[in-house]
Each structure stands twice: as structure tokens, then as C-alpha cells.
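ok so for the tutorial part 2 we go from a plain amino acid sequence to predicted C-alpha cells. step 1 is just haveing the sequence, like this:
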Amino acid sequence: MVRAAVLPAVGAPLEITGIELPDPGPGQVRVRLAAAGVCHSDLSLSNGTMRVPVPAVLGHEGAGTVVAVGEGVGQVAPGDRVVLNWAPSCGRCHACSLGEVWLCADALTGAGTVYARRASDGSDLHPGLNVAAFAEETVVPVSCVLPAPDGIPLTEAALLGCAVLTGYGAVHHSAKVLPGETVAVFGVGGVGLAALQAARIAGASKIVAIDVSPGKEALAREAGATDYVIASDTTARDIRALTGRQGVDVAVECVGRAVTIRTAWESTRRGGRTTVVGIGGKDQQVTFNALEIFHWGRTLAGCVYGNSDPARDLPVLAEHVRAGRLDLGSLVTDRIALDGIPAAFDNMLAGKGGRALVVF
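step 2 — the prediction. this is what the C-alpha cells look like for a chain of 360 residues:
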């Protein structure tokens, strides 16, 4: 038996309880978690903004050590350090055939399976976003693990599995920020902090961080922000004032609210680019009129998982970490136990802190 944070139903409080994991079957791996990041997507799953079968063990950003492997697994062995990959690509669907593995049609099919049972009553449990990282141990398909980079502590390597891949990818793969360009990042949470660092690595000349909380300014500046703006009705105007009244070349939206998406778009120059990373609900409607779309010539693009290929990008990120260009530890503002996850959700809703990290 291992301890896990179970979501019994959409909108219900998490329950810290014992679960029974089966031995890994063919093609499966059992992993003992070192750490798991608390991502806004986990909050979105718990409140129904995103849907997964329940009851479920959430958590998708994690790293740990392989403790057992099933039949036919040769890619990893007990004792190997791994990063969890919550969105493995099938390699067969149309998106994968185009090389767009982040849009794989089958990436989340594992969330519908039964992977464990409650210790108390034997009821079925689903693995959230495939990997069920909010638990001391988990059993996943071998496609859901990648080698952890050498020289990086597992606790910090956990952040590579979502926040950093997403934030870095949004800047480098989706927005394709060029040296000398100006960038605005909306939302200074875990992904936003990673995006700020990525903009600095890309050589952006001005990096504006925007958040509702004045208390996040120091975090943002440490990550690379040259300017900090408190979100208000005048945010777009404030950003244009910082850029010679032109607007930034690139805006990266990490919040997922209609008003923020619209503001990010308005904050870019004529011909500018906005990448939307934040996951909003169906009720968040963003409107534009036809004339302004023509006149401003701006680009608005969605961004899934940073448009990243984890197998390709993890070694790149690791080199940035080892070279001192990317600081994983600075993303973390709270190190917590499993029973601290509900409070971490509350902090997200209140706009407090960066990444909370469950350390086992």
C-alpha cells in the first residue's frame, strides 16, 4: 500500500488515503516518486474545467526512481532515474505523422484505464493525466517515462515534466522569440516563471511580467523580467508605454481567462504574436471584430504542452540547467507534503506563489 491524493469526484475535496498498486504488467514500469509539482491543470481537473474519469489520482509533473518493470520492458531498469511524461505520443496518428507529437490523438487514452484500487474498499482508481504523480509510487506504461538528465536532482527534475517544457516551449517553439525582440508574459506562476527564463535565454531585449499580485515582482525579476506590471484595466496601455507606444513583439498568456487573452493580444505591436498557454473554461469567450483583425495583422495561437517533444527537448533543457542559464529551483516557492496539495490549490486561486512541489 502507498499513500496518494485521490479525487473522489469532480468538485470534491482531495482525500489523502492508501491505495493498492498492482505489479507492473507487460510494458509497464513502477516508479517511486521523488517529487511532484502542483500544476494549474491539476486544479482544472479537480474543478471540472478539464474532464477525466473519476475517482482518480491526479498529478502529472513528477520524477522518481524505477523500482520494478514488467515483461518486455528493456528501455529502463530498476534503479534508473526517470521523469514522467504525461502525454506520450503514439507515433501513428495524423498529428504524430506530421511531427506534431504534442497534439497526439491518443496521448490521454491511458486516463480512462483502471490502474489501482483504494486500499479501504477496493474501488477502482484512474490515473488522472496518465501518470498519477500525487502518490508515493505509481505504475505507468514505459512510454510515460524518460531518462532523468544527469547532474540534476530528481526533486528539481520533476519540474521539467510540465512547467518547464510548457513555458520554454511556448517561447521557443510556439512564439519563436528572436534575439532582441520584446516579450510580455501574463501570469507569474510555475509556467510563467519558466517562460520568463526562456525569454531571457532567447535573448529578448525587454521582458515584461504581468500579474495581479504585487508580491510576485521579485520572483519575476529573478526569472528575467526587466519590467513588472500589476494587471488592471490599463495593462495593454501600460505595456505599450514601456515599448515606445508600439506594443511587444510577443505576448505569452499563462492564465487562461478571456480578458487576459484579449489583453495579451492588445499588448502586442501591429503584426505581433500572442501564444495562449493557459487553459480556460468553455464559458471564457474571446471576441474580436473583423476590422481589427485585418488592421492589426496580429497572430493568436494556441499552445499545447509548449508544442514540445519531451524526448527531444528534455536534453536541451538539461544543458541549459547545467550551464546555469535555467534555474529550476527558483520556480519553487513552496515545498509540501501530499496533504499540502489542497492549500496549494487555494494559493493558485488566490494568485499566490510560483510552483508548489510535493517532496516525498
